[in-house]
Write a structure and sequence with these properties.
321 residues, mainly alpha, 2 domains, 7% strand, globular, binds adenosine-5'-diphosphate, binds tryptophan
Length: 321
């Protein structure tokens, strides 16, 4: 079984990225042959600062390795180190109906907000399909918001196979129910674009302030809260502590007697402890960038070899060779 996923270097990674995509991906590296990459080509659709892209790309590499991606088990690389993916994207685009891309939510959301939409953003799902198909991927662990993209990939792959003969494996998205959508400090989906994130490796003071600033209602501590399971801090505690600890706080809130301040303090403490080891590892990696760059170079070489084989198969089947 081949597992593949990618993450854009478009800003500091947060708990939504971690619980929605990174942790499931890291767990899956035990279960098959895993390919994980930093989607720097994709970041070009919305980030236009070269230095920032370079810095973010290194940050994602450090974050992922610090959180447990093991380069002995997984192939870890930068998307743009395998330029073949852009050629495959072209082949796929010729079989992708405009009407399919017009349904794409990232394009629709941005244009609805009045953000100018470039062609790269419109064609984003085609490049993503190429990412997935060029490595003969079977399983794609992602958060719920990426499900549509994986479904589009399946549609495009089926179409290519029907038109030009069996070429691509048909991938399945893998979305973990309990972490499909991690809420941000304002209760909406946690996202870099909403400014509601808790960063995995955030500054202690800043994150403490963000957590203590989570808005709660004005019911006094003693009042029982029958809707305790919907409380944002309880939901996040279940992730950064454990279901048991989170449920314990939920029960105390439901019974009455637990103040919101104490609940938020517990959330901060558990968040900080959850990433304590990873924080230490990240500092070590940051002091050893030659190692990190070496991991990415090795990963690129392995990914490149596989991509060349699959691209050749596609070129042959569609009559370019
Ligand atoms: P953002 O919305 O912050 O820009 P990305 O779109 O770069 O995040 O997402 C990278 C990965 O993290 C994707 O697999 C996505 O599904 C997952 N992810 C992002 N935010 C969340 C969230 N709030 N809950 C669950 N998964 C998420
Ligand atoms: N679109 C994904 C995101 O924003 C990143 C991505 C690019 C990806 N190519 C991929 C994810 C291929 C999984 C597989 O999060």
């Amino acid at each position: 079984m081949r597992i593949l996923s990618g993450i854009q270097p478009s800003g500091a990674l947060h708990l939504g990225n971690y619980f929605g995509m990174m942790r499931p991906a890291i767990e899956l590296q035990e279960k098959g042959e895993a390919f994980y990459f930093i989607a720097d080509y994709h970041s070009m659709t919305s980030l236009f600062d070269a230095d920032e892209r370079r810095k973010n790309t290194l940050d994602v590499a450090l974050d992922f390795l610090a959180c447990g991606l093991d380069p002995k088990k997984s192939v870890f690389f930068k998307q743009s180190d395998v330029a073949e993916v852009t050629e495959l994207s072209w082949l796929l685009s010729t079989l992708t109906p405009m009407s399919l891309l017009e349904k794409g939510h990232s394009f629709k959301d941005k244009s609805a907000k009045g953000i100018p939409v470039n062609h790269g953003l419109f064609a984003y799902p085609v490049l993503m399909a190429a990412d997935i198909l060029i490595y003969d991927s079977n399983v794609v662990p992602v958060g719920r918001d990426q499900k549509q993209h994986v479904e589009m990939t399946r549609d495009i792959a089926v179409k290519f196979n029907e038109q030009y003969g069996q070429t691509f494996a048909i991938p399945e998205p893998q979305i973990r129910g309990e972490v499909a959508l991690v809420p941000g400090v304002d209760g909406q989906k946690m996202s870099k674009s909403y400014g509601n994130t808790i960063e995995i490796f955030g500054d202690e003071k800043i994150i403490r302030k963000k957590i203590m600033g989570i808005k709660m209602d004005s019911r006094p501590p003693a009042e029982p809260k029958p809707d305790a399971d919907k409380n944002l801090a309880v939901q996040l505690l279940k992730l950064v502590a454990s279901i048991e600890v989170g449920t314990d706080y939920e029960n105390r809130l439901r019974a009455g007697g637990l103040g919101y301040g104490d609940l938020k303090k517990a959330l901060f403490e558990n968040y900080w402890n959850h990433f304590a080891d990873a924080r230490k590892k990240r500092a070590e990696l940051a002091a050893n960038l030659d190692y990190v760059n070496g991991v990415l170079a090795d990963g690129a070489a392995k990914a490149h070899a596989l991509a060349q084989t699959v691209l050749k198969r596609a070129r042959r089947n569609c009559g370019l060779e």
